[in-house]
Amino acid sequence: MLLRPAQPPDALAIARVHVRAWQQGYRGLLPDDYLDQLRPEDRAEKYDLSNSGPLRPHTIVAATGNIIHGFATTCPSHEPDLPNHGELTALYVDPHSWGLGVGVALVTAARAHLVSLGLKNAYLFTLIDNLRAQRFYKTDQWTPDGLRRIDVVWNTSVDVLRYQRTL
C-alpha cells in the first residue's frame, strides 16, 4: 500500500470510498433513506484536489495500484477558539479495508503533514454516537474537549463532538 497526495483524477475513487464508508459506518446513526441516496458521482464534483497550498485542504490517499483504500484530509484550523491548530477534516477507509491498518497509516500521515506545516496541535469532529470512530481516535491519543454542536454535512444535520491532540 502506498500513501500519496491525492490528485484530481482520484476524485471519483475517493468519493466511492467516502460514500461506502458513510453507508456502512453511519448506518443506524443517520436515516437509511438518506444514506441509500448518496452517490459517489455527486460527491466527486465537490472535491478540489488541484491546489496544494499550505492554507488549502490536503488529502492523502492509501492506494494499491489504481485502487484507493482510504483517504485523510487536513487543513489549518477554521475554529475561532483554536487558531494555530490543524484539523483532520476527513478520515475514511473503504469498509472492505477496515481492520487492515489503513486508518492507522492515514491518520499518522495526516498528523505528519500538519506537523510539516509547523502546527503543534490538532482537532477533529466525529458523530456523537459513532463509538467505533471514537475508539479509533482514543487509541490514537485524541481526547474529547467537551465541545458538542450540530453541524450540517452533506445537507444533513449531525450531532458532533470535538476531539483534540498534541501532534
List its salient traits.
167 residues, alpha+beta, Aminopeptidase, seven-stranded mixed β-sheet, 7 strands, 29% helix, 35% strand
Structure description:
- This protein is of the alpha+beta class.
- The protein is about 30% helix and about 35% strand.
- It has 5 helices and 7 strands.
- The protein has a 7-stranded mixed beta sheet.
- The protein is globular, with a radius of gyration of 15 Å.
- About 30% of the residues are buried.
Q: How do you describe this structure in short?
A:
The chain has helices at residues 11-25, 32-36, 40-44, 102-116, 131-139, and strands at 2-5, 58-64, 67-76, 86-93, 121-127, 143-153, 156-166. With 167 residues, it is an alpha+beta fold.
Question: Main β-sheet: number of strands, strand sense, barrel status?
Answer: 7 strands, mixed
Give the ordered list of helices and strands. Answer: EHHHEEEHEHEE
Highest-level CATH class: Alpha Beta
Total of domains: 1
Note the overall shape: globular
The secondary structure category is alpha+beta
Question: What is the assigned CATH homologous superfamily?
Answer: Gcn5-related N-acetyltransferase (GNAT)
Q: What would CATH call the architecture?
A: 3-Layer(aba) Sandwich
The count of β-strands is 7
Compute the separation of the termini in Å.
24 Å
Largest sheet strand order = 1-2-3-4-5-7-6
Fraction in beta strands = 25-35%
The CATH topology name reads Aminopeptidase
**Helix amount, in percent?**
25-40%
Determine the number of helices (DSSP H or I, runs of at least 4 residues): 5
Average pLDDT metric = 95
